[in-house]
Amino acid sequence: MLNRLKSAVIGAVSGLEATNGATDGVQYNKATLAPKFPYGRPHFLGLGDDEVQMSADHKLRPIIHPSKPLPYNTGYAECVNAGKSRWNEDQAVYRQGVLSKLTQTDVGNIQKFSIPYTYYGIFDGHAGVGAALCAANQLHHIIHEKLVDAQDDIWIHFTEKHLPTTKHRDLLIIGALESAFREMDQLLLEDRNKYQAAGGCTAIVSLLILGKLYVANAGDSRGIICRGEKFVPMSMDFTPENERDRIRRLAQEQPALLGKEFTCKEYLSQPRAGDLGKTVMFRDAYMKGWAYKTLQPEDLKVSVITGHGKRSRVMGTIGVTRGFGDHDLIAVYQKLPIKPFLSSHPEVQVHSLLPTENNEVLVMATDGLWDVMDGAKAAEIIAKSLTAFEDKKFVSAATCLVGYARGSLNNSWQLKGGKPASCDDISVFVIPLLPYKLEYEELLQKCSSTDFKDSCIEVSHVEENGEVEEEVSEC
Amino acid sequence: MLNRLKSAVIGAVSGLEATNGATDGVQYNKATLAPKFPYGRPHFLGLGDDEVQMSADHKLRPIIHPSKPLPYNTGYAECVNAGKSRWNEDQAVYRQGVLSKLTQTDVGNIQKFSIPYTYYGIFDGHAGVGAALCAANQLHHIIHEKLVDAQDDIWIHFTEKHLPTTKHRDLLIIGALESAFREMDQLLLEDRNKYQAAGGCTAIVSLLILGKLYVANAGDSRGIICRGEKFVPMSMDFTPENERDRIRRLAQEQPALLGKEFTCKEYLSQPRAGDLGKTVMFRDAYMKGWAYKTLQPEDLKVSVITGHGKRSRVMGTIGVTRGFGDHDLIAVYQKLPIKPFLSSHPEVQVHSLLPTENNEVLVMATDGLWDVMDGAKAAEIIAKSLTAFEDKKFVSAATCLVGYARGSLNNSWQLKGGKPASCDDISVFVIPLLPYKLEYEELLQKCSSTDFKDSCIEVSHVEENGEVEEEVSEC
C-alpha cells in the first residue's frame, strides 16, 4: 500500500486534531495518549527487543521466519519496507482453538468432544501501526466469542446428519466472521479517544474448521489456493476501482457526504470550465453504460473516485476501501470524513478441503507481495519450492516468495530481471491444507462412534501462545 | 402481479390524498384530473372501441392477436385477467426507427445511410392503468432521443473498424436505455399533479440494433431466448426477495426511511415480546451469514423485507422493486413512502445475434405467463408450435403460450392437468432473431462499399404507426 497511502497518511495526520471532537465532551490531547499495544513483531517469530529493531533495518530488509514450527509446519516469512515508514506496518497472527462439549454416556461417564479450529490473520497497517496491532491482538478473541455463540447450532448441524448440514453451517461461520469484523472496527472507534491514534489496517483472515476453509477479506491483501502450478483466488481486492459501484451509490444516496467539492457522477474525460454548455459523456452512480448531458457548473466537481488500477482513490485520499480503523481520516483539502465510504465488512469465501497431496496450500499475503507478482507466478514459485525442499518446505516456500518480491539492493531494490522490486512491507503465510482434511476425517470417525446426549456441558478454549483460556458453561 | 399487488393497490389508493402535498403550493383534487392517455389496447392490435370492451371480458378472456403482421412476422398475443381489475393493466408496443446520416460522395452527390433498429416493450401496470399507458406511449420517444444523442459515437465505432467497436458501442446503447428509463420515471413524477393518478408499472424492453439484442428490464416481466427446447434467460426478476441486499443496505444507510416501525435487520424467526432478553439469530443489511444477539425492544420492529418468493414484500406493501411510477405509494398502516426503495434503473443484458435457423426467438412476457410456467416449459411449447405451424408461426407460438397459461374455465381457470391457471393479465411477444442478423449483414455489406466523409447531415426518424417523424440537423 506504499504509494497509495502516502496521501492517506498526510490526511490522517493533518486531520486528526481538526476533526476529532471528543464524543463525551472532554477534549483529549492525542499526542500524550499511550498506544493500546506496544510495537512488536508477531509473537510466533520469538524475536527479542534487539531483533525487533534489526528486523526494521531498511537497508538490509532481512527475511524473518518463525523460531518454532507453526501448526502442521505452516510456512511464514516477512520483511520490512524500504523506508516508507520506521516500522513494519504489517502484522500477522495465528491461533488454535476448540469448540468443546462434555457429553454424558449411558453409563454416566463424562466424555469430552472437541471441534478444533485454526485461525491465521494478516493485517496491513497504514497511517501508523496501531490498528494492525489491535487487530492482531484482539480479532481472534472476538471471532472465538462469535463461534462460541454459534456453537450450539454448529453442533446440531454437525451431529444431525439428515439436515442440509454444510450450507447452514457455512452461514453460521460466515456470520461469525462478519459480525466479528464489525465488532473489531467498533472497538477501534470506541478506543479512538483513549489511545494513541491507530490509523487503519486491511484484514485477511482464514479459518480452518470442520473440513472447510473460510477466507474473510477486507482490504487488498490476497489469499489464493495453489495446487501444482495452478491457483484459485480466495479473495478479491477491495480498491476504489473495484468498489466503484458501492461507493458511488452511497454517494448518490447521501450527497451530504460529498461536501461541495465532490460528485458521484463519472465523466469520460474530466470536464473543464471552458467546456460549459457543451455535451459531455457521463454516467450516474447506478449506470453501467455512458449517456450524454450538457456541461453545467456542478459538473466541474471532482469525482468521488479518481484514477485507475493501483492509483485509484476515494476522495483523492485512500487507495483501499475496506478494513479496520481510519475513523479520523479526512480528505486532505476538503476536510471531509472518508470513513463513511470505507467498510469493515469482509467478503467471505468458502472452500471444501479435498486435497489428496501435501502440496496444496493456501497462500495469504499483503499487497507488498502482489504488487510485483500475480497468482500464477506465486503458484509457480510455490510449486518449485515445495519440490526442491524436503525439510521445512512451507517455511522455505514462504521465504522464496518474500525473497523474490523484495529482490536485491543495487541502486534500488530490484527483481531478478532488473525491474523495480516491492518496497512495501511483505508478509506471507503458506498453509498446507491436507492436514486439515485429515483432522476432519478423524473427527468424523470419532463423532460416529460417540453417543451425543441432550444434556451436556460446553467448554471452549483458545490457545494463546501456549496458555489455554477456558470457558465452561452448562447447557 | 395479481396477489402481490393487492395490498399495493390499497396502499396507493388510501395514500394518494394523504401524502400528496402539491409541490408548487397548489392543492390539486386528483379525482377531477384527466388521465394523460385514454385506456386502450396496443395500437398494432387494431381494435375498435367495441372490441376493446370485449377484450376485457373476464369470463371469456379472449386471446387477442395483431390484425396486421408485425416486423418479420413477430408474434404477439394477450389476454385479460380473471377479474382482479376492470381493464387489462398490461400494455405492449413496438416501433421501428433509424439513425441516419446523409453523406456527400466524391462527386458531390448526397447519399443516405441508415442504421435501422426495432424496439419492443411490455409494461405491466399496477394500482391503475396510467403508468403502463404512459410508458407505452412515451418511452420509445425518449429512447430514440437518447440514441440520437449517442449517434455520432455509435457511427464512429461502427465505421472505424480498428476500434474495439462492439464493447464501446454496447456501453453507449446500454447508457441510452438506462438514462431513458430514468427520464421516463422522472416524467411520471412531474406529471403526478397534472394528470390522474397513474400508479406504477414494470418495464421490459428489447432493442435490436447493429446485430445485437439489448434487453432492459425493470420489474418481474421476463425475457428468454429459446433455441429448440433450450433457453437462455435475458433478464432477472426484480422482486423484494431478489433485491434484498440493495433494499436492506439502503435502509441501513438511511434509517429515517424506515420510520419507527421497520428495521433493516433480518431475523431467523420473527422476534416476539415474550422472547426479550433471549438470544436470537439475525443478520445486518450487509451480512450474508447469521449471527447472534440478545433480543431488545427495537428488534420487535418489522423487517423492511418480509415473506419469500412470490409472497415477498417491501414494507409489507409491494412485491416488485423496479419499474416506473409509484411516486405516491405508501405503506398502508405506517404511512411511509415506498418509492425510495423502488428503482427505475434497468438491468441491461446484451446478446450477439448468431442464429442460423429461423426457430431462434426472444420470448418477452409479463409475469402472468411466468407465474404458471418456467423457461423450459415455454421453450418446449415454442419448439412444438414452430414445428407444427408454417403460416403465421410466431403469432401461433405466442397464442399457444397465452392459451396454455390462461387455461380453460371450469369452476375456475385451470391448466390442462387441473392445476390453477394464471388469473393475471398475460402478454407475450415471440420475436424471431434470424432476420435481425441478416439485416445487419446487409448493412455491413452496404457500409463497406460506402465512402464516409467528415461533413454530413444527420437525419433520424422513428416510425409511429406508419407515420414517420423526422429530425434533420447539420453536423
User: Percentage of helical residues of chain A?
Assistant: 25-40%
Total strand segments of chain A: 22
**N-end to C-end Cα span of chain A:** 47 Å
Gyration radius of chain A (Cα, Å) is 24 Å
Say what oligomer this is: homodimer
Greatest contact pair?
A-B, 32 and 32 residues
Biggest β-sheet of chain A, characterized?
A: 8 strands, antiparallel
What is the SS-derived class of chain A?
alpha+beta
- The unreliable regions of chain A are 1-28
Strand content of chain A: 25-35%
Number of helices of chain A: 9
| Morphology of chain A | globular
Q: How confident overall, as mean pLDDT of chain A?
A: 87
Describe this entry's structure for a reader.
The structure is a homodimer of 475-residue chains. Chain A is of the alpha+beta class and 475 residues long. Chain A is built from nine helices and 22 strands. In chain A, the strands form six sheets. In chain A, strands 2, 3, 4, 5, 15, 16, 21 and 22 form an eight-stranded antiparallel β-sheet that branches. In chain A, β4 and β5 (212-218) form a beta hairpin. In chain A, α3 runs antiparallel to α4 (165-191). The longest helix of chain A has 30 residues, at 130-159. Chain A is globular, with a radius of gyration of 24 Å. Mean pLDDT of chain A is 87; it is low at 1-28. Chain A binds chain B through residues 146, 149-150, 153, 170-179, 182, 250, 253-254, 279, 281, 283-284, 286-292, 343, 345, 348, and chain B through 146, 149-150, 153, 170-179, 182, 250, 253-254, 279, 281, 283-284, 286-292, 343, 345, 348.
